[in-house]
Design goal:
It is built from five helices and two strands. The longest helix is centred in the first third of the chain and has 18 residues.
Length: about 100
């Protein structure tokens, strides 16, 4: 490795604002990926109050596992790598409108 090149996972050139936007994108992707588990959980909790704790434990655990898997440090680093490889395209919002994410 050249002395001037940063190691593969050195994110020192990444602005905090950029990282926060990428984290938001990762979370949106996670919700999309886990949407079926999310629907199952919401169907279970509908009309319940205290019984949610024991009646919907399985659905809640499945949703949590999926979300944890999809929002891991590894997934975030993958999003960062793809974003950097795409040339740091603009991410975030403009006038409240979501900028399309085309680098993923």
């Amino acid at each position: 490795m050249n002395a001037r090149q940063a190691p593969p996972d050195d994110w020192s050139g990444l602005l905090k604002k950029e990282e926060e936007a990428l984290i938001t994108i990762m979370k949106e992707r996670a919700l999309s990926t886990c949407s079926q588990m999310q629907k199952n959980y919401y169907e279970c909790v509908k009309g319940r109050t205290l019984s949610i704790v024991w009646k919907c434990r399985e659905e809640g655990n499945a949703l949590n596992e999926c979300l944890h898997r999809e929002t891991s440090e590894e997934k975030l680093n993958d999003v960062k790598r793809k974003w950097l490889k795409a040339g740091k395209p603009r991410v975030g919002t403009t006038n409240g409108e979501r900028i399309p994410v085309e680098f993923l």
